[in-house]
Every structure is written in structure tokens, then in C-alpha cells.
Specification:
Blueprint (H helix, E strand, L loop, with lengths): L5 E5 L9 H10 L6 E5 L5 H7 L5 E5 L16 H6 L4 E4 L2 H6 L4 H14 L2 E6 L3 H5 L3 H12 L9 E5 L13 H16 L10 E4 L4 H8 L6 E4 L6 H14 L1
Parallel strand pairs: 1-2, 1-8, 2-3, 3-4, 4-5, 5-6, 6-7, 7-8
Helix pairs in contact: 1-10, 5-7, 7-8, 9-10
Bound molecules: 2-phosphoglycolic acid.
The site of 2-phosphoglycolic acid has 13 residues, from strand 8.
Amino acid sequence: MAPRKLAAGNWKMNGDLASLTEIDQLCKAHPEPGCDMLICPPALLVYPMVASAQTHALMVGGQDCHAKESGAHTGDISAAQLRDAGADYVILGHSERRADHGETNADVAAKAAAAHQAGLIAIICVGETEAQRDAGETLSVIGDQIAGSLPERSDSANTVIAYEPVWAIGTGRTPTNEQIAEVHGFIRRQLDGRTGDAVNLRLLYGGSVKPVNAAEIFAIPNVDGALVGGASLKAADFGGIVAALEAAG
Ligand code: PGA
């Protein structure tokens, strides 16, 4: 059976305790969503969000974790700590982390292995910059990121991949449907050699997904959901994307 599609929200460094009212509204509007519904808030909000979503179908995730289980790593958070706070998922290797913190594919793979070990599902992000696309390097960049960022024993139960072109994040620009289809098809084929159940591993598209373009994006082959930044902050916007994913079936 094909896995449930996934609408994942990434709040980045936005939101506070008062923003949890958005979660109440989202949960009330989608009490039994026809897809998996996930919000990844800043780490400080993981536990209160889990508490406020308790009787609902909303899942909560982190935006990063350390590769080590515990120890002298000031300011960092382990996968086990996220799990302890009630998280089910963690986003890893987002382009903002790769750019702001110099995270390499090897770093991402080590973090994903730690996430798997702790029982978290890793959402591993890949995507080309505009310069790489213009140079015709998109597929080779994505191929290298997939080859280097997935740890051993990655499978459809513990891993999700998000294709997020860097130039589409927060810009209001999106690739054409053909460009998304090309990259998602390529990722599916890359996974084929690596995981026995590549066909079931969820591939999300991310980068300027909004309620107005969601239905069109979800109709593209090999798109199993979305990773949503700006439009995940408001219940009404994210709810519109959830509704489009439910309708896509
Ligand atoms: P955006 O961000 O939806 O605001 O473009 C997507 C992301 O960075 O995950």
C-alpha cells in the first residue's frame, strides 16, 4: 500500500507560544486529515506544540539535530531529546542549514543516522542553487546530495526526501511542472539502487508552495506531499495546502 502523503510545515525561526493558536485552528479544521500533517516549529516550541496537539492528528518535528546522542555540545539538541519531547520527525540538511552552518552531505548523513537511531523520521532536504541550474548541473548536484546525505538503512519508514530548489525558497518562484517531474523522477531512480522500497519513500516538493499552486504541484508524478515554509505559519494557508493534498488522494 502506498504510504500516506505528507504535508509538512517548517516554521523556521518564526513563532512563539502565542502562535499555538494557529495549531488549535489547524487541528479543529482538519480533525481527521486524509494525509499526514506535520509542523516543525523552533525547538523551544516542540514540547508545547505536542501538548496542544495531543488529542489531534497533528505530528510535530524538529528542524535539526546533532549527530551525537549526548555530551558537551553547547547549544545543540540531540535526536533523542527531540523524541523525548514528543517529536516524530526532524528536518535535516535544509539549504539554510547547509548555507548558514556549512553542513555537508556527510554531516547530514550522520545526523540522519542519529535521527533513525532515536526513532525519528528524517526529512532530508536536497536542492540546487540558481547558478547550478543555469550551469546545467541540477541532476548531478541532486545525485551527489542523495548519494552523500542518506545513511545506511534509510528506507520508506524512516526517511522522507524533500526537493527544494534553493532559488524557489521564500521567493514566490517555482520550477515548472516539467522541472519538478524531472527531478522527482530522477530522485526515485537514484533511490532504487539504494533502498529496497524506493517506490514507497515519500518525495516532497518544497519552495514557495501556497494554497493557490498546491493542487497543480500535487498532480505531478512522484510528488508525495510538500515541505512548506511561509505558508505553514497561518492555519488557513497551511489548511488550504492540506486540503489540496487530501483532494489529490
Ligand atoms: P517557503 O520555504 O515555502 O517559504 O518557500 C520552504 C522551505 O524552506 O522549506
